[in-house]
């Protein structure tokens, strides 16, 4: 007897050839594995599906996202045609622009380290094409982008107008003419696919309202495709702020920095194609803003993906190893050593892993690209996707992960194959080893340690960090793997307990439970696959729901639910038109007009006026000057800033209802006082009106009004929520309140600033559309409908993808188990068991494994989801005082309970009514 553990065959292999013999053994194993796969094509397809399905989904989803997301390099022609650069003013002259290499992000800066600004010759207040061309050389061609309203009867449709001259080759790629001819005058336009989808006529004459009180008629002379989904294409019109630079030499990074000093933001073709020359500048890199998602989340998602791929392949090789017990025993009886038996199982893993990963990654990428093209074709209002974006590096990494996962999944079956009991297997006896109670205890300890590591990594050190340190990354990966592995280590003992406690279950469930407890290798592998999938789903949905709840907590409503406000910028004529539109669309609405008094520059019909509100200590002209400049002195300080909203004038009854004023505040308004927020110390306010005449400020009138401080700290139609930081609409606020009677005493007059609209039952969607289509360009309606929650389709999509993985894992494992248990099925049939019993056993088998794995997955996912909820709360609401952890139980239970039960029903239906005959082995 050889006590060294080396078989006779292994010893012969070592003596006969060394490395050559080892390679030869692998060659033989691969040939045997390939022959076995050809003989059992159906089982091979099921195994490949388990390994490749997550790869297919990841490759398809990633390719779709990368293709739809057009980066700066892919979008060069659609933004700058065939020019060398796209130049646009980001600030007034005298400020230096700091930008990213691709020009997608930027800002203005000053202070140490920032270059001094440069000025165009002559220091023009509004530099034009000639000024830009003077500092760049070459030729600059204008690009305009305007927002207009197209009048169709009494309706108006908003449209974006791209202003280019398509007859010039410089604009090639920015749009494509599909019919008709390019516009040759400002009275001609093209209608794009996006414009037609928005309801614009594709022929005839259109009336365009530019929002400044000017309308013009244009003729549609053709159709066009606009990659950036503009609605109309016309010749450049008005003063351009963006130009295409045409010249023979490229714009390099040094010149980009030079042009930044003129206040220009530069998208350079040369720098976009060769970003390395800009990467050396830390100022540019610092402006490449990330997605805001903490790096710890990406690490956890990547680790979860690897675990899912590895564990999904587990059931395939576990069932495959069990099915090949007899073949392995025959190989062993013919002299095959332990190494050769392991090689045989590993060879199957290599073949299936390589083939399925290669085929399904490529198939997923092609399907994702085709889906992106289809979406771009069928959704014309969306910017066109870029060219098919295949990330080969990510594909190779995904392929390597899949192959490694297949080998990892095959490791335990390979080890078990090398320990095959020759006599027992050839006699058809399979004995399962007893599970030592120490293993589940060790698993619980490992899982607990992994959970603590994951939670600590998110809650304490990695919550706010966009970049995760290498040490933290390694610790987080270790914690995630320990959480999964430790939980899975408890599965064998729990499965044996499940079989032991099944005596009170119905017959079919009792047989299935005992079979699961006996065939633990296959059951544990399937449990691991379902555990990983449900855990990833639970973590993802908890993170999404927690982010949603944190954003909802941060949302500050602008108005009471269902009410609306029309904001006006067009003077008295615009206010009269808006009132008429609102009353026509909602005849029974309650309408309140809010007037602004003493607001500088708010009423376009009274431009040039200046107002000031001071408590004293300065002359009236000095007050106007300081108000115009936005400054103050120690003796002359503003009591209210009138440069923006001005004082809000309404009747005392209206003000009381809108701002929830006390009786004391209402009495103050009725007495003609100015009502200021709580904390105001002055007893009177002097309001001065005038205008600027050159460098002089001319006073046209002034009045002194008494002041009273309210008990409220702010006058807003909606009380501010604690920790809220975001508002998505036009709120109604005022720095101070006066009655309409007192407003008549203030020089300069007043104008309608906004119109409050309250309808019985709230403003309907149809009424909102009717109003928006008929308002002038410089007026807009906002209706408060609460926090814009994420659509249910996101939860359905995520749940559908992961539910499909759970369903495939359960059904495939059940199918392989049924194939393995054919002899047991024949025994049951010989004892008179009806087909219905066999179907119920198959369904119960699938349900038990699916529900058991889903339960463990929920436990792991709840721990990881709790950890993830901390950083997503901070990202969604920086003002949050504590983490928000939301658990979408309905979606989770549908997948964790509904999908296993569906798999059980499908497994029962797929079970044959007649038992197939077993061919005698020769």
Describe the structure.
Keywords: Cell membrane, Membrane, Transmembrane, Transmembrane helix. The chain crosses the membrane at residues 44-66, 297-318, 344-372, 392-416, 437-459, 471-495, 523-545, 793-812, 846-869, 889-910. Its main location: membrane. One of its GO terms (molecular function) is transmembrane transporter activity. This protein is of the alpha+beta class. 51% of the residues lie in helices and 16% in strands. The strands form five sheets. Strands 4-5-10-7-9-8 form a six-stranded mixed beta barrel. The two termini are 31 Å apart.
Briefly characterize the structure:
The chain is α+β, with helices and mostly antiparallel strands. A six-stranded mixed β-barrel has the order 4-5-10-7-9-8. A six-stranded mixed β-sheet has the order 23-17-14-24-13-25. The two termini are 31 Å apart.
> How many helix segments?
30
Placed side by side, the strands forming the largest sheet appear as 4-5-10-7-9-8
What is the CA-based Rg, rounded? 37 Å
Give the uncertain stretches in residue-range form: 1-19, 282-291
Largest pleated sheet = 6 strands, mixed, barrel
Average residue pLDDT: 79
Strand content: 15-25%
- From the N-terminal CA to the C-terminal CA, the straight-line distance is 31 Å
Bulk shape = elongated
Helix residue percentage: 40-55%
Got a strand count? Answer: 25
Structure class: alpha+beta
């Amino acid at each position: 007897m050889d006590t060294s553990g080396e078989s006779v065959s292994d010893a012969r292999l070592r003596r006969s050839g060394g490395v050559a013999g080892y390679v030869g053994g692998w060659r033989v194993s691969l040939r045997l594995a390939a022959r076995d796969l050809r003989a059992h094509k159906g089982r091979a397809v099921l195994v490949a599906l388990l390994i490749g399905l997550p790869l297919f989904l990841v490759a398809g989803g990633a390719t779709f996202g990368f293709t739809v997301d057009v980066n700066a390099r892919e979008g060069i022609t659609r933004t700058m045609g065939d020019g060398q650069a796209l130049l646009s003013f980001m600030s007034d002259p005298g400020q230096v622009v700091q930008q990213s290499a691709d020009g997608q992000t930027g800002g203005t800066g000053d202070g140490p380290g920032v270059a001094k600004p440069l000025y165009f010759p002559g220091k023009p207040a509004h530099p034009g094409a000639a000024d830009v061309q003077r500092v760049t050389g070459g030729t600059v061609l204008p690009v305009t982008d305007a927002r207009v309203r197209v009048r169709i009867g009494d309706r108006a449709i908003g449209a974006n107008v791209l202003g280019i001259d398509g007859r010039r080759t410089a604009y090639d790629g920015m749009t494509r003419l599909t019919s008709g001819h390019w516009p040759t005058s400002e009275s001609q336009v093209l209608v794009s696919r996006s414009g037609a989808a928005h309801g614009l006529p594709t022929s005839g004459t259109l009336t365009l309202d530019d929002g400044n009180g000017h309308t013009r008629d244009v003729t549609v002379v053709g159709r066009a495709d606009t990659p950036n989904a503009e609605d109309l294409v016309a010749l450049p019109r008005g003063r351009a702020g963006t130009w295409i630079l045409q010249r023979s030499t490229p714009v390099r990074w040094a010149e980009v920095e030079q042009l930044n000093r003129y206040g220009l933001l530069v998208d350079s073709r040369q720098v976009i194609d060769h970003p390395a020359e800009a990467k050396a500048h830390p100022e540019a890199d610092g402006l490449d803003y990330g997605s805001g998602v903490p790096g710890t989340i990406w690490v956890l998602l990547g680790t979860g993906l690897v675990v899912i791929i590895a564990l999904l392949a587990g059931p395939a090789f576990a069932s495959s190893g069990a099915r090949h017990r007899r073949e392995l025993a025959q190989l062993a009886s013919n002299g095959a050593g332990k190494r050769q038996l392991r090689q045989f199982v590993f060879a199957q893993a290599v073949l299936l892993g390589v083939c399925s990963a290669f085929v399904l990654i490529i198939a997923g990428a092609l399907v994702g690209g085709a889906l992106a093209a289809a979406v771009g074709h069928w959704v014309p209002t969306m910017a066109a996707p870029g060219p098919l974006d295949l990330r080969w590096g990510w594909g190779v990494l995904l392929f390597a992960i899949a192959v490694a996962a297949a080998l990892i999944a095959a490791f335990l079956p390979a080890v078990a194959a090398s320990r095959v009991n020759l006599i027992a297997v050839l006699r058809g006896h399979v004995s399962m080893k007893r599970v030592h109670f120490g293993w589940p205890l060790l698993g619980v300890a490992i899982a607990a340690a992994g959970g603590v590591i994951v939670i600590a990594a998110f809650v304490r050190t990695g919550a706010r960090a966009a970049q995760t340190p290498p040490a933290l990354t390694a610790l987080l990966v270790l914690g995630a793997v320990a959480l999964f592995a430790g939980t899975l280590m408890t599965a064998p003992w729990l499965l044996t307990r499940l079989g032991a406690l099944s005596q009170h279950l119905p017959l079919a469930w009792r047989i299935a439970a005992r079979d699961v407890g006996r065939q633990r290798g296959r059951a544990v592998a399937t449990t691991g696959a379902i555990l990983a999938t449900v855990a990833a789903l639970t973590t993802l949905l908890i993170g999404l729901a927690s982010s949603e709840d944190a954003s909802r907590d941060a949302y500050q409503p602008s108005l009471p639910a269902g009410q609306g406000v029309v904001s006006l910028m067009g003077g008295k004529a615009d206010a009269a038109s808006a009132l008429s539109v609102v009353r026509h669309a909602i005849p029974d609405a309650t309408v309140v007009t809010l007037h602004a008094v003493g607001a500088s520059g708010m009423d376009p019909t009274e431009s040039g006026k200046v107002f000031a509100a001071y408590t004293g200590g300065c002359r009236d002209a000095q007050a106007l000057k300081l108000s115009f400049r936005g400054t103050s002195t120690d003796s002359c300080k503003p009591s209210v800033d009138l440069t923006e909203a001005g004082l809000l004038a309404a009747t005392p009854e209206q003000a009381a209802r809108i701002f929830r004023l006390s009786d004391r505040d209402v009495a103050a308004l009725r007495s003609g006082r100015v009502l200021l927020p709580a904390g105001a110390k002055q007893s009177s306010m002097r309001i001065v009106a005038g205008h600027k005449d050159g460098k002089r400020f001319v006073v046209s009138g002034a009045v002194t009004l008494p002041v009273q401080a309210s008990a409220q700290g702010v006058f807003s139609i909606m009380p501010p929520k604690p920790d809220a930081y975001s508002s998505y609409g036009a709120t109604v606020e005022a720095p101070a309140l006066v009655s309409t009677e007192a407003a008549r005493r203030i020089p300069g007059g007043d104008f309608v600033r906004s119109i409050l609209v309250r309808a019985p039952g709230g403003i309907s969607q149809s009424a909102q559309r009717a109003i928006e289509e008929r308002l002038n360009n410089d007026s807009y309606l906002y209706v408060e409908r609460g926090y814009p929650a994420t659509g249910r389709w996101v939860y359905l999509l995520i749940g559908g993808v992961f539910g499909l993985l759970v369903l495939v894992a359960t059904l495939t494992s059940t199918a392989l188990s049924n194939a393995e248990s054919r002899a047991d099925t024949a025994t049951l049939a010989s004892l008179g068991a009806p087909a219905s019993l066999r179907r119920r056993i198959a369904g119960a088998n699938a349900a038990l494994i699916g529900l058991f794995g889903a339960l463990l997955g929920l436990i792991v996912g709840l721990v990881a989801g709790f950890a993830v909820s901390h950083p997503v709360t901070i990202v969604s609401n920086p003002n949050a005082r504590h983490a928000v952890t939301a658990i979408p139980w309905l979606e989770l239970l549908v997948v964790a309970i509904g999908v296993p039960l569906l798999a059980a029903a499908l497994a029962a239906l797929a079970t044959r009514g007649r038992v197939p005959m077993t061919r005698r082995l020769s």
